Amino acid sequence: MELFSLKGKTAIVTGALGLIGRKHCEALAMAGAHVIVADIDEQKAQDFALQLGEEHIGIGIDVTDKTSVEAALSLILSNYQTIDVLVNNAAINDMFENPAMAKELSAFENYPLEAFQRSLDVNVTGVFLCSQVFGAQMAKQGKGSIINVASTYGIVGPDQTIYRNAAGEQTFYKSAAYPVTKGAVINFTRFLAAYWGNKGVRVNTLSPGGVENGQDDFFIQNYSSKTLLGRMANADDYQGALIYLAGDASAYMTGANLVVDGGWTAI
Q1: Where are the domains of the chain?
Q2: Which of 168, 4, 8, 175 is closest to 80 using CA atoms?
Q3: Is 238 considered catalytic here?
Q4: Cα separations (Å) of 117 from 23, 64, 68, 112, 147?
Q5: Which GO terms describe its molecular function (predicted)?
Q6: What CATH superfamily classification does 2-266 receive?
Q7: Which pLDDT does position 205 carry in this prediction?
Q8: Is the Cβ–Cβ distance between 111 and 176 less than 8 Å?
Q9: Mean predicted lDDT score pLDDT of the chain
Q10: CA spacing 20 to 30 A to 263: which of 82, 180, 199, 206?
Q11: Residues 6 or more apart in contact with residue 264 via CB below 8 angstroms
Q12: Given 80, 163, 173, 178, the catalytic residue
């Protein structure tokens, strides 16, 4: 099981306080890594890091601000000397404050430019900046693993019918922002893998499917019916794949997209 051990390694997870971000952190900690819980809310990041154990730290980071990302690297190096694993998990997935307006605002014809730009800033520019800053350090070290979290919607277009309720009414549209940005992340992975392959830095994508998290029953049923396993993911269903990509078990794997979606994209 040494292939899956991350003992002595340092791993940072951005967007660490999200639903699967927390599970990423827990998995890395269980595998023996020193985990840097990185999120926009520094106090909450520190609180969660303490839950993982005293050997882990929480930091505040704005992935769209290079100065903030560079400050995070300096703090990590001062504590641990190296950075071995970067999980680019921070992302925006559309939420509308007023549910009554969700259908109208999420329709492509009405989708706000500001929302599209914000998704580009976080989901794409954030991955770019974190990879540039932390990846450059890995290249200097001659080793490292970058895991970019994308989505099945980076591979296939959204099926808008799953957002229809039992009466056949469209409650919401999946906007263009999420598939556009996640598709960009997948190809950015290939660029980085080719660019840093001779520096010992491996770069792969993890593309998860949808996670069940208190959604309406009709949506859970609609989504589940499109998967070969007949269900949505649990939040911890991606932990094994993450540990595989982070450590020596995937030593000959780079530029790949590991799809863990219950079979959503298989048919």
Answers
A1: 2-266
A2: 8
A3: no
A4: 28, 12, 20, 9, 23
A5: oxidoreductase activity, acting on the CH-OH group of donors, NAD or NADP as acceptor
A6: NAD(P)-binding Rossmann-like Domain (3.40.50.720)
A7: 98
A8: yes
A9: 96
A10: 180
A11: 152, 156, 209, 226, 227, 228
A12: 178
